[in-house]
Amino acid sequence: MKSRRRPYAQQRPQDLGGGVWSVPVPIPGNPLGYTLVYAIESPKGPVLVDAGWNHPDAWEALSGGLAALGIDVRAVSGVVVTHFHPDHAGLAGQVREVSGGWIAMHESDAALVTLMHELPESEHASFQTDMLRRAGADPGEAMEAVSRPTPPARPDRELRDGDLVDLPGRKLRAVHTPGHTPGHICLHLEDADRLFTGDHVLPDITPHIGIYPFDRDDVDPLGDFLESLDRVGELGPLDALPAHEWIFQDVAARAAEIRHHHEEKLARLRALLAQRPEPLTIWEVAAMMTWNRPWDELSPMLRGMAAGEAAAHLRTLEARGAVRRSSRVSGVDPVRFQALDS
């Protein structure tokens, strides 16, 4: 039950056995290519794990892929969303419209979806540009880096850690795994030793872990993510059904690999800061780090994402007492970080 990542054109809906199916749903213009949407059999009608990007081609792939497996999308009883990002929650609203089913997500992500719906466009743009300038971006680049995805549909049901999803005859339990988003959940199909991992544990790549706003000091998303990896590891060598790439075995082993990757990244970042006598802005730190492309080749939007990830790593180092942030003269001055003597 392993299907290595292939281009979307080579993907096909699959019967994974045990009343579980997968449908690849394209993500237009994204290098990830597709989201793997899963359907789980239920007497009330199948329950979907995630729904894919809100786009006509994606809807055709989802509804047509389900039909190829003998499932009418109108019979879906519910969609449980692993997290609120558009490649996971985007089509949940359309599924609800045609099926009358429910949408469920963790309460922390549900709160963010509500905020996205209620925050005016002008306030959102000001929030992002101010955040980027406080990170050290110049005003022009801060303006170019602003983006606002369309908010997903509001959920009908909110989940907490340990809750069972409405799936009669099966045991599908929510496991709160914050980090990638505050309300990210994995879903443990306890009667089959399978774990739907969303973006939390992927077989080859690692998810984006950022902090928003970049200069917050009251949360630690990367620290939460590392603890969540340990928690998933405690579930044992379950079969992993991720939202991207391919299905794989032994989620605990992969979770340990990802943790090791981030610990190495934290150590390299600490060493880089120790070599610089002066405090650095988040933007300057991000430019020093290694990404999948050189910093000069990243678009303003991708630089903003890189800065969010740099900020998350700096915040974890700060929480561990390895770096400190400098005080600012005013709220618009960039925050700066400096290594502490070990």
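Next protein, fold it too.
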Amino acid sequence: MDKKNEDYSGRSIPLRSVGAGSSMGGPGKQSAFARVENSPGFSVLAYCMASISMTIVNKYIVSGSQWNMNFLYLAIQSAVCVVTVLAGKYSGFIKELGDFDWQKGKRWFPISALLVGMIYTGAKALQFLSVPVYTIFKNLTIIVIAYGEVLWFGGQVTPLTLASFGLMVLSSVIAAWSDIRAAVTGVHPAVATDAVSTLNAGYAWMGMNVICSACFVLGMRKVIKKMNFKDKDTMLYNNLLSIPILVVCSLLLEDWSSENLARNFPPETRKSLMIGIIYSGVIAIFISYCSAWCVRCTSSTTYSMVGALNKLPIAVAGLVFFDAPVTFGGVSAIGIGFVSGLVYAWAKVRQTAENKLKLPTSQPVMSASAQSSKDANA
């Protein structure tokens, strides 16, 4: 599973592209929009740009020294997602989206609670860690999901996949070592006596995020099959049911005093923060659309490779837009993490090819992310 980025991509399962494969204006007379809609290059570029911008915007919002209202931020983001989805439904852009069913909502509520845990811990980890380190550690989620599927769904971990997992762990260890060393020696920009404690808090939140992300993905896969949910249903229920949880948590656990609101939304950056929050809600939906667009115009294999390759520009963007320290260890960790993603994608390609060669006397064993995608699009 390509981790969108992130936690926020987990909020919505990829949409099926509207009018996929259709020809506007007849053969040879496609409109400019139709040509773009069926362009592999544009689909890959759109997916990469959406993923990178989502991570950068999230980091910008939560990285303020006085920021402490993550629940409020995520509640607004979910609300924007729901409004965007409903606007798409009533405008005819998002089709075959049914009305909300309270009985289904009750059954789906535990999944939304796991989603809240995932996105909240992700936001906290991103608040304390640099974008490159956060991106590297997100790879560990793939390992937990893979072995979770081995235990509960009869999945399989091939030797090549295991090798990619080893590289993921190595890159995470190097990233942590480099970050802590930079903090201790004063190279880190946030030079302070509690620099290491701050990093340790980030690693703790990152560990919780890995667990929450894996539980969310595995739990969602199981419930989707039982409830026969489609892509758009999952997207709506995920965001709509997470709003009351986030609002209640914000009211109970966060400081709503005028002084604290002023610290979180200072007048000089208030407008840009609100634009960023609204943008993050809209782009979460756009990422899901671009995921389906990329798969339709290319292939699931190409999409997996793009997800692996996309880790590098996200990490580099974090170095460019924020004051993350550029060290030999950090750059090495990014490189190893990038290679681990490529090895993992190649392992998926080989495993899929081997499964196709098997006689159809039994259902083939699929890789973790391939099976999850199949279930989500069932």
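About the second fold: DSSP finds 16 helices and no strands in the chain.
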